Amino acid sequence: MTTYRTIPLLRRLPLLLALLCVYPFSAAAGETLTLSIDDAVRMAVEKNLGVQVATYSPAIAATGIRKARAIYDPLLSALVNHQGSNQQVAPESFTIDQQRVFNFDTSISQLLPSGATASLSFNNFWSKDNLGLRTSRFAQPQLALSFSQPLLQGLGREVTERGITTADDATDSALADSTQQALNTAAAARNQYLLLVMARETVATRQVSLDLAREIEAQNKGRVAAGALASYQLQDSRLGVLQAQKSLLDADRAEKDGADLLATTLHLPAGTAIATTAPPLSGMAEVSESEELQTAMQRRPDVVKARISVRTAEFNEKISHNLALPSLALQGSAGVTGLDESYGDAVADMGSTRYPSWSVGLSFSVPIGNNSARADVAANRLIASQARTRLAATEESAGLEVRTALRALASAHEQIGVTEQGVAAAEIVVESYRKRQQLGLATTKDVLDVVAILTQARENLTVARASYQSAFTNLWKATGELLDRVGILQPGNAIASRERKGTP
């Protein structure tokens, strides 16, 4: 049966890589947790404290929508009042007029989407005195309906619900910020995972290099003992072993640092080792630059937030034009009044509608010059222009980032093919030099030099594979779709509609 020790050294690398994935160097300290790259990203986003903090902002902003909707809460008012006075009827009279007045009034008012305010009031008035006249005691209840409808300033649902609209936009903006935080965390975790995989592949590569250096040293010792090799060449082989050991120690330290960093990012308990799996290396897929740019314009949180800012600024500019208009309102009221000595009879008298009352009219006001409103219009116009310019700059930056990521992805894919050929060529050269050494046509230093070239070629291949995966990370981050790629749902991935507000 073939064992690990009988496998040629140049072909041990894939087996070592597989062993490292299942049994990482740091696994000896405690429990081992096997995670794929997508599992690690999801865990990082789920447990990251910064992301958890960011998720509070949309919830807090959403309370602003609820608060703004309170403009449609009916307003109930009540007044209870008792007044009394003792007055001398005439300057030389000893008669004292003792007047007592009692009021109990209640009303309910409601704001309407058009900007109108409707109010229903029920007022109760009782009066009595001690003069003994027919008017010394009476009750006068009154039921009235009144309204006030703006005709210029404040007219329309948009103006009425401007607070709801701006609160809704603030919630969308907070969602974009939360998504950006999650996106940054996902990209960082994915790249850290790739760095750890690359570090473990480097450890495996350098372990094979050390094994090969030791094998060359053992062969040299046998050849020196047989008199077929000069003894000074043992120093070359010994130096090669020491250099390979140092390189392995450096790689081992880098692997432990990478594992510790990823474990911290994932908020794993101390002593938990992470067993990684090599991300699949698929072929270069057909990627359309126009489609990726379109995706970025729709999904990137910074573009989303900039577009929300434009939406808010243009809305405020529109509203400021309305608020700069003169105040003109149609006002009216209608009601019935009852009158009798007793309160019950007075209420019944209301039903006869013998004492109706009504009014209708216009109310107009405007500041002379209206400078404050005009300044608000000018300011909001500038703010809207600023927001549009900022959006254009953000979209331009996003486009550049997407195109750069696409070029990096294409280059990384080509680098894999080049480095694979470099490894194959270096392996052939090493085999050739080892045969030449056995024939006395190459020195130990010559063999160690080509072994170093092979080691570097393998590490170059490792870097190329990691760079290829990292290029996908950068592209998906640039387009804003990384969270979807790993199965993380975020409500702020796209521009939210205003359905929460109940308006188009």
Radius of gyration: 42 Å
| Number of structurally distinct domains | 2
Overall 3D shape: rod-shaped
Helix content: 55-70%
Report low-confidence residues grouped into runs of 5 or more.
1-7, 492-504
CATH architecture of the largest domain: Up-down Bundle
Could you describe the 3D structure shown?
- This protein has 2 domains: 4-65 and 166-296 and 410-501, Outer membrane efflux proteins (OEP) (Up-down Bundle); 81-155 and 327-365.
- Helix 3 runs antiparallel to helix 5 (162-225).
- The two termini are 74 Å apart.
- It has 504 residues and is of the alpha+beta class.
- Residues 1-7 and 492-504 have low confidence and may be disordered.
- The radius of gyration is 42 Å and the shape is rod-shaped.
- It has helices spanning 13-22, 37-47, 49-69, 157-160, 162-225, 233-265, 289-299, 301-323, 343-351, 371-438, 444-479, 482-485; strands at residues 32-35, 75-88, 96-111, 117-128, 137-139, 142-150, 273-276, 327-337, 355-365.
Relevant terms:
two-stranded parallel ribbon, alpha+beta, rod-shaped, 2 domains, Outer membrane efflux proteins (OEP), 504 residues
List the helices and strands and how they pair.
Elements: H1 13-22, E1 32-35, H2 37-47, H3 49-69, E2 75-88, E3 96-111, E4 117-128, E5 137-139, E6 142-150, H4 157-160, H5 162-225, H6 233-265, E7 273-276, H7 289-299, H8 301-323, E8 327-337, H9 343-351, E9 355-365, H10 371-438, H11 444-479, H12 482-485
Parallel strand pairs: 1-7
Antiparallel strand pairs: 2-3, 3-4, 4-5, 4-6, 6-8, 8-9
Helix pairs in contact: 1-5, 2-5, 3-5, 5-6, 5-8, 5-11, 7-10, 8-10, 10-11
